[in-house]
Amino acid sequence: MKAEMINPFITATLNVLSTMANVEARKGEIYIKQDDKMAYDISGVIGIAGKMSGFVVVSFPESLALKIVSGFLGEDKTEMSKDVVDAVGEFVNMIAGGSKRVFAEQGYKYNIGIPNVITGKNHTINRPSNIMCVGVKFYVGDECFAIEVALKPREDND
After folding, report:
1. Longest dimension (CA), the chain
2. Is 74 exposed, middle or buried (CB count within 10 Å of its CB: 0-12, 13-18, 19+)?
3. C-beta separation of 117 from 80 below 8 A
4. The whole model's pTM is what?
5. 73: confidence class by pLDDT, cuts 50, 70, 90
6. Which CATH architecture has domain 3-153?
7. d(C-alpha 40, C-alpha 11), whole Å
8. Calpha distance 132→108 (Å, rounded)
9. CB atoms within 10 A of CB 43
10. pLDDT digits (tens, 9 = 90+) for 11-33
11. Cα–Cα distance list, 97 to 8, 34, 45, 100 (Å)
12. Which residues 6+ apart lie within 8 Å of 34 measured at CB?
């Protein structure tokens, strides 16, 4: 995965949080993911298939997920619920969809799958070992969340 392939996901993440949840986030450090363990409590993951294949994950600590989802839904969320889980799935869907337009302009058309959400401390999301995963930390106040992207362009010309 080329490092610049993360940029559309950074832009989409900042845009989704700002416009849909009225939350201002700032981009933090970029890192190469070395393992399958997620650092946070709730993760939305969505698969990508087409001219590129792989997945995108957005992962939040529970407290930040509740804050962001409260802004998104316009009602105070104080504990994990189906609404919170569904909203995290919708966030990853909107982030993948937002980046899809940029990649289509570059000739990388792809489809996105149905989001899945995994909850619980120390959960893992397995990724293919042949696809590099790049992560980006984002800060909202003094809390942090991350997106992780593992993409591989197809080699053929189909």
Report:
1. 49
2. exposed
3. no
4. 0.90
5. very high
6. 3-Layer(aba) Sandwich (3.40)
7. 21
8. 18
9. 26
10. 999 999 999 999 999 999 999 99
11. 10, 26, 13, 5
12. none
